[in-house]
Amino acid sequence: xxxxxxxxxxxxxxxxxxxxxxxxxxxxxxxxxxxxxxxxxxxxxxxxxxxxxxxxxxxxxxxxxxxxxxxxxxxxxxxxxxxxxxxxxxxxxxxxxxxxxxxxxxxxxxxxxxxxxxxxxxxxxxxxxxxxxxxxxxxxxxxxxxxxxxxxxxxxxxxxxxxxxxxxxxxxxxxx
Length: 176
Prior knowledge:
Distance between the termini: 56 Å
Low-confidence stretches: none
Largest sheet: none
Radius of gyration: 18 Å
Number of strands: 0
Helix content: over 70%
Order of helices and strands: HHHHHHH
């Protein structure tokens, strides 16, 4: 009798959606911590998001968006990349405020609005991409799986990925 373990293959679309749920919950928790002016808790949540979103953004840019471009075209692909750039910029700004150790009432209002209006819409937009997943062929799903496993294994946080990897990868793919 065979006593081996059968390992299920990762479903990259399921993982993509699961990441979005984690991001959504974390962003809502971040808004709550900011509204309470709890810089320590907000920094803890931002650090978690940095670690979670780094591999996720990297995978989206290096694999998912190029495969899905056949459905939504180059302009939307470029729009999604610009959304990543905007989110990274805002994450850096938020980090600077939180590193001070306090959040003023004015900063709390501005930061919560930024998260609601500029960051939170991105996972909502990305969820729409999953509508096209059933149209992918098996080879494309396999590539997505392998690439997601690699991005997670390398586990580069968002701000580090943005500073050290993103631009070179975009250039390699012919995206400026």
